[in-house]
Design a protein that fits this description.
Elements lengths: L5 H14 L7 H8 L3 H13 L3 E4 L5 E4 L8 H8 L24 H17 L2 H13 L12
Antiparallel strand pairs: 1-2
Helix pairs in contact: 1-3, 1-4, 1-6, 2-3
């Protein structure tokens, strides 16, 4: 089953949080906001800094900010910073040769699916994730039982 790691999931949450920040945000503040262990948040933020997605500053007013605008940060970059290279199946890697690749009936369809998923990761920006999050926070299910319709 195709599944993002917890580290990638948390990194997306942390970057979404930083996407709304105008001042540096501490790792402690972010870990508290999402009820995540501080050492894990600090480790993920450090990884995102080393990959160039986040800037860090020390001191009393230090913390973390996005290194680029949310429009410039691709989901594929976040995945690459926190996980191995995405591959749906081993044969998606050009250097991998499967024992049955000549007669495999699923190889080409799976490579095609891999390409579509990778394209989605490359086209999805942090900005679009933030926008969808903001939109969904304003959508409220109507309560027809308590609505006054008269």
């Amino acid at each position: 089953m195709l599944k993002l790691s917890k580290k990638t999931d948390y990194a997306i949450n942390l970057l979404t949080h930083l996407g709304g920040a105008t001042l540096p945000v501490s790792a402690h503040e972010v870990s508290k906001a999402y009820s995540l262990p501080h050492p894990m948040v600090a480790n993920i933020l450090k990884q995102l800094v080393s990959f160039g997605l986040v800037l860090s500053s020390r001191g009393q007013r230090g913390g973390y900010l996005l290194a680029k605008s949310p429009e410039e940060i691709k989901l594929s970059e976040i995945i690459q910073a926190t996980d191995d290279v995405f591959k749906l199946v081993e044969c998606c890697n050009d250097n991998y040769t499967c024992k049955i690749h000549h007669q495999c009936p699923t190889r080409n369809p799976l490579i095609g699916l891999h390409s579509k998923i990778k394209k989605f990761f490359d086209e999805t920006t942090l900005y679009s994730i933030i926008e969808e999050t903001n939109l969904n926070s304003f959508l409220i299910e109507p309560n027809y039982e308590t609505a006054n319709l008269s």
